[in-house]
Design brief:
With 89 residues, the chain is an alpha+beta fold. It is built from 2 helices and 4 strands, in the order H-H-E-E-E-E. The longest helix has 18 residues.
Length: 89
């Protein structure tokens, strides 16, 4: 019974950790942007990010290029970072 309780407790911790984004630095943010780009149809190892995000009318947006998973063509993408990032200062 104790191992079952431990297993359930670990599962809950993993589940909770997977639901919340913890972005502590620019490297974490860049990784998050890459993850979003793969969700937009980018081949992960083809992603090239601009140096930093830009302030635009829609918010702070990071741009990049990648290879499209379907067509194999190079394409541009953009990801709004406002949901997970607050600029310092």
């Amino acid at each position: 019974m104790q191992s079952m309780t431990l297993s359930l407790g670990v599962s809950c911790v993993v589940l909770l950790a997977g639901c919340s984004e913890s972005l502590w630095n620019a490297g974490d943010l860049a990784e998050w942007v890459r993850n979003q780009a793969t969700g937009q149809g980018c081949v992960r190892d083809s992603i090239g990010l601009e140096g930093w995000y830009r302030e635009e009318a829609s918010g702070n947006v990071w741009h990049g290029t990648c290879t499209d998973t379907t067509s194999g063509d190079r394409k541009q993408f953009s990801v709004n970072v406002d949901p997970v990032w607050t600029p310092s200062g």
